[in-house]
Amino acid sequence: MNSVNDSTKVYDSLGLSTQQPSSRKDNLKIDDFMHLMVTELTHQDPFKPMDNKDLATQVSQFATVSGIGQLNDSFSGLSSTLTSDQALQATGLVGHEVLVSGNQGWLSQGGVIKGSIDLPKAASNIRLRITDGNGALVRELQLGSHDAGQLAFDWDGYDDNGDPVPAGRYQLSVQASVDGADMAPNLLVAAQVGSVSMGAGDGVRLNLEGLGQVSVKDVMQIH
């Protein structure tokens, strides 16, 4: 499109040339674009008017900007709806036991810590080690051999001497022999869902008893 002959005078007449840069971060809307276009048409050189193709192109661009804005608003509304629906569905997990990937378990008074070991291949000499918050070994469970798949385990809260240990959070680790080499399979730990909350920017989160928050996406199984 052709430029205006004397753009300085045009902007002066609009009171734009004396304005200082604003600290506002508001985005231009379609009405602002239309106002600028009408202003430009009003002050264009009558001997060199805007070409019809340029006018059509600019109007098309305005329509595209407006459409994108409406599309973004639609997606934003859809995202909010999906998140709300997900939160409502997640409330059904309160009071249920879930399996999440991790290396910590919560031992309640008189309770147990249980979970599963995810074995990618058949393994032997599978050993589950439980340590306390200071890193001291509390119990080592010998789980033998198992085919590929999940091997369930549970620890009754007693140490290697047969004495009960205090309730609290304990660290878990597993070692196994696969094809003659040691490896550390992935651990899935069971925990009870106490409540559900909305995370800031990361969706629905589950509050697990003794273990804190995890994303609902991290849940591997529901019991």
Task: Write a structural description.
- The chain is elongated.
- Helix content is 26%, strand content 37%.
- Strands 1, 3, 6, 9, 10, 11 and 12 form a seven-stranded antiparallel sheet that branches. Strands 2, 4, 5, 7 and 8 form a five-stranded antiparallel sheet that branches.
- The termini are far apart.
- It has three helices and twelve strands, in the order αααββββββββββββ.
- The protein is an alpha+beta fold.
- The protein folds into two domains: 7-89, no CATH class; 95-222, Immunoglobulin-like, CATH 2.60.40.4070.
Question: Can you summarize this structure?
Answer:
The chain has helices spanning 7-13, 30-42, 52-90; strands spanning 97-101, 104-107, 113-119, 123-131, 137-146, 149-155, 168-178, 181-183, 186-198, 204-208, 212-215, 219-222.
Terminus-to-terminus distance: 66 Å
Count up the domains: 2
N-to-C series of helices and strands? HHHEEEEEEEEEEEE
CATH topology of the largest domain: Immunoglobulin-like
Q: Give the C-alpha Rg.
A: 32 Å
SSE class = alpha+beta
Mean pLDDT: 77
DSSP strand (E) fraction? Answer: 35-45%
Count of runs of 4 or more consecutive helical residues: 3
Class of the largest domain in CATH? Mainly Beta
Instruction: State the helical fraction.
Output: 25-40%
**Low-pLDDT residue intervals, each spanning 5 or more residues:** 1-5, 14-19
* Bulk shape: elongated
Q: From the 3D coordinates, which CATH architecture of the largest domain would you assign? A: Sandwich
Total strand count, please?
Answer: 12
Main sheet, how many strands, which sense, barrel?
A: 7 strands, antiparallel
